[in-house]
Each structure stands twice: as C-alpha cells, then as structure tokens.
Amino acid sequence: MLAGMAWNTEETKRKLKEAAVAEFAAHGLGGTTMERIARRAGVNKERLYTYFGDKPQLFATVLADELNKVAAAVPLDHLDGPEAVARYAGSVYEYHAEHPELTRLLLWEGLLDLPEVPDEASRTDYYRTKVAAFARAQQSNAISDRLPAADLAFLVLALAGWWYAVPQMARMMHADSSSTPASAKAALMQAALHLATPSK
Amino acid sequence: MLAGMAWNTEETKRKLKEAAVAEFAAHGLGGTTMERIARRAGVNKERLYTYFGDKPQLFATVLADELNKVAAAVPLDHLDGPEAVARYAGSVYEYHAEHPELTRLLLWEGLLDLPEVPDEASRTDYYRTKVAAFARAQQSNAISDRLPAADLAFLVLALAGWWYAVPQMARMMHADSSSTPASAKAALMQAALHLATPSK
DNA sequence: TGCATCTCCAACGCAACCGTTGGAGATCTG
DNA sequence: CAGATCTCCAACGGTTGCGTTGGAGATGCA
Q1: Is the CB of A30 under 7 A from strand C?
Q2: Under 8 Å CB-to-CB from B56, ≥6 apart: which residues?
C-alpha cells in the first residue's frame, strides 16, 4: 500500500512544507502565493490543495510543525538558579538566530489576531511546562519570586525575541555603538540573570 | 488659493490617512487593499494615488506620521534613577495599550525587512536621544551601567512591547493564572526597575 | 459669461492569484 | 495485458486588486 511507491508522496509533502515555511516566514499569509510555494518546491500547485487544503490551513500546519521543532530543540527541564535562566535565555536567542523562520511565523500569526490559534491545546500545554519550571525554581528559592512565574518566563522570552521582532529598531538604536549578535546575546543574558536573581 | 475651498482637500487627506492607519495596522501591507481604505474613508480610491502615491508609499507616510505622534506623546528627558526607568517603561506600555496601531505598524514593518526604512534619518535620531538619556543617567551613577546604554534602553522597550508582538503567546502563558493588563504593567515596571538598579 | 483650474469619481484595462478540473502517465491486481 | 487506482500537472474560470483615465462638477479669473 504505502511501501515502494515510485512517485514519492511523502517526499513531495516534505518539500512543499519546507518551501511553505520559507515563503510564509518571508512574506506572511497575505504576501505569500501558493504558486510561488509550489514553484520553490518544484511541484505543481495543485498538490498543495489536495495535501494541505487552502492557504490558511497550510499556514496553520506549517506553524504547528515549526513549534514542535522548537519545543524539542530548546528543552527547559530544571532551573537550579539565576544562571540557568540566563543560559535558557541565551539558548532561545541562539535558536532564533539559527531559525529565524519560527520567530517570523509567530509574529505573523500574532498580527493576524485570530480568536483561536492552530494547535491551541498542545501549545498552551507547552507554555505551561515552561511556566511550571519557573514556578518550581521560585518555590525552592533558587530564583527570584518577586514576579509571578508566568510574567517572569514571558519577559525572559521578550528579551530574547525583541531583536527579531523589530530588527529595524535594533539597528537604529545601535547605530553609533559597536554592537554584534554576540554582544546582544551577552546583554540579554545579563538582563535575564538580574531578573532571576533573588533580592537579598 | 487655499482658503475657502468648498471641496475640502485637507480633510479628505486626513480621513484617508486615518483609514489607512486602521487598515494597515489590522492587515499589514500585503493584506490591505486600497479599495477598502478608500471605502472606509468614504472617498474615491483615486484620491489615494494622487495624494500619496502607490501602496508602499502610503504605508511609509502613515508609519512616519504615527512615529511622530509617539515621539511627542511619550517624552523621555531626564532619568534620575531606576524608578524613572520603570515609569518610562510603564508609559510606553500604556501608550501601546491605547494606540495599538503604532506597535502593529512597527511589527509589520519589521517583518518586511527592508534594507532601509522610511524616514530612517529622523527615526535614528529619535532613538539616539533615548539612548543618550540612558547613557547620561549611567554616567551620573543614577542607574545601572552593567549593560551598554543602547542595550538597556532596547531591552526596556522589549519588556513593554512583547505583549503586543505575540498576544497569542501572552494569552497561552497566562492561561491558568489570573492576569490582567494592570498586572502585566506592574510586572514589566518591576522588571525594568531591576534592570536599571545599580548593583551594590 | 467664457475660459482655465482644481477636486473628485465611476468605470476601465490589466495583471495576479486562488482553487479546480480533466486527463496523462505510472503502479498495482488478476 | 486489461482494468482499476494512484500521483502528478498543464491549463482554465472566476475573482480580486492595482493603478489609470476621461470627464463631471465646483471655483477662480478676465
């Protein structure tokens, strides 16, 4: 049934999704055309519709896929102190630097302000585990508890993500200083460290 | 020449720009149609082209206008201590809450990743004054100097802006806690305070 | 009042894109 | 090899949106 097919349907799907990630990340939902996704994948446009439905559905599929990837790539198990929070912030920044598509997809999605997002349940669950890790660390006095765990976790992600959300602002604010991706990462880790350090 | 005209050209321009802000903020450059802007303003589409040029030019005009507004609305003159930084962060958050269009326009712009941004010179200048205010406060030991002034200023803006950049993430991360706009503001002000407080 | 000028708009040409369809070719089954 | 089934695609209809144009109405000027 599905073994030994010469026309390679799984491979075709994979190529289409890969192309869709690139196009959607670059141009958003409105700016992307199905035509270009298909052409980039070297596949006929019609395959998109039979495999993935219409354009919004494809966008949702692609975004869910990328989120699953980041969940696997940047685990957050145990926070044994402020330094662990700083390292986590650095990892997130690093992941964004290497996979700018995900950030951009998230931002496109945020701007669409849908009442419900695709895969809402599993994503809520994903974030809940992050918040829970922060909460546990607070309860054991390993990190500061002056902020609610959800706020602290959210703000740490803000520090790491803002560079990619408004790159034009980052560029203009650092116009006359000598700033590099490395110094940006160091700065945000320093900031995360202080947010997580308990008061004496 | 320009007094006493029965057909009210300045008013028409104003209405078109107002409609354009709303449409571009809601749907971005790609998702907005000139037709809908004109219809929302109650004016014929052709006026857009004679007054503002094509769609990208209109977008640039509208964004520059909104940035001038925020520059006037949230001044940052003198930072005499960490509390002033926290208040500034709170004001920025507040402004975003009341004028979500600006944030959204900035984010749409960021996603377009143009090599150069409209009004680049004056905007760079605008950010430079913000950074300079932070730098002065650092030199007089009023606030922490463990981060470069540009990074500190940028990260403070990150704290205030991230809620509006990824509202879906904010919602999901705070799913099971009781979180309000007021508590979000309090959290980010607390965070800004700690980033700006000098080490002993 | 005749002429020039300016504001405004309905209607249009044109291009792009969405989503579909009819059918060609490849693979399995008997 | 004949028939059924599946993958793939070139071509198409219909819609939408961009940017323009030709002209109608309102105003200033001689």
Answers
A1: no
A2: B29
Chain A contact set for B157 (CB, 8 A):
162, 169
Instruction: Name chain B contacts of A111, Cβ cutoff 8 Å.
Output: 28, 104, 107-108, 111
- CA B33 to C1' C29, whole Å: 54
What structural domains does chain A harbor?
Answer: 9-53 (1.10.10.60), 59-196 (1.10.357.10)
Which CA distances in Å does B97 have to B64, B89, B113, B168, B169? 19, 12, 25, 16, 17
> Has residue A62 got a pLDDT over 70?
yes
Q: Are B23 and B36 in contact (CB under 8 A)?
A: yes
CA A99 – CA A53 distance, rounded (Å): 26
Is B53 within 7 A of strand D by CB distance?
no
CA pseudo-torsion sign B122, B124, B127, B133: negative
Q: Is A1's pLDDT higher than 70?
A: no
Specify whether the CB–CB gap between B75 and B91 falls below 8 A: no
Whether residue B4 is predicted with pLDDT greater than 60 in this model: the reply is no
Count of Cβ atoms closer than 10 Å to residue A70 Cβ: 16
Contact call for residues A199 and A147 (beta carbons, < 8 A): no
In sequence order, the 6+-apart residues with CB closer than 8 A to the CB of B173 are A127, A130, A131, A150, A153, A154
Residue A120's pLDDT is 85
Please tell me the total number of residues recorded for chain A in this structure: 200
C-alpha angle A114-A124-B167 in degrees, rounded to nearest 5: 40
